[in-house]
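Practice problem 4.
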């Protein structure tokens, strides 16, 4: 099995999403020794905003000059995604949505003809069969049934994005309310950690 581990939080050792994604990877690799792990830390090695040259390269236009290096990196990011059987993502909520670092990575794996294609009537995901596990963290409470659920453009976006690519096996390990009080933070982390221990390889 090949596992792709993506972290996007800017908080380093203070990050709960990093703590949880690392625990998920450990759980899965303990369950399946020999798993190959590919890791990208999008805060330590940021993926820049998508440029016109990079976008055109997805359509077969050869890049010129400095853009060649960015296009080569994009090709590697896409190859790592395509090779992965399981993708583990640390995805904190920033301002009701995703870190821009993670959004930039998503731009590199949504490629027509590679991970999806348009048909005469709709679109077809080409990445089915993968498993995606997302360590989702939020400062407030945005789960279903909460007063602020309508502001969740984090988990809803990720579910829709990967669904568009044809991926239906999507699991969220969530810790929310992390900024409300120390007691609620500790309880949320404990509950999410217990969910991690239930994951099967």
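Answer key:
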């Amino acid at each position: 099995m090949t596992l792709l581990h993506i972290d996007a939080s800017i908080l380093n050792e203070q990050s709960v999403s990093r703590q949880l994604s690392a625990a998920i990877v450990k759980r899965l690799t303990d369950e399946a020794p020999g798993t190959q792990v590919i890791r990208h830390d999008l805060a330590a090695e940021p993926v820049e905003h998508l440029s016109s040259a990079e976008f055109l390269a997805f359509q077969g236009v050869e890049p010129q000059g400095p853009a060649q290096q960015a296009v080569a990196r994009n090709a590697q990011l896409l190859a790592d995604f395509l090779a992965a059987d399981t993708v583990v993502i640390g995805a904190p909520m920033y301002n009701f949505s995703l870190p821009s670092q993670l959004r930039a990575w998503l731009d590199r794996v949504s490629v027509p003809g590679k991970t999806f294609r348009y048909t005469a009537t709709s679109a077809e995901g080409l990445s089915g069969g993968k498993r995606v596990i997302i360590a989702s963290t939020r400062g407030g409470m945005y789960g279903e049934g909460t007063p602020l659920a309508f502001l969740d453009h984090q988990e809803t976006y990720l579910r829709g994005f990967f669904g568009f690519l044809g991926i239906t096996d999507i699991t969220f390990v969530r810790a929310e309310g992390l900024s409300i009080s120390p007691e609620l933070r500790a309880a949320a982390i404990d509950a999410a950690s217990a969910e991690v221990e239930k994951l099967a390889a």
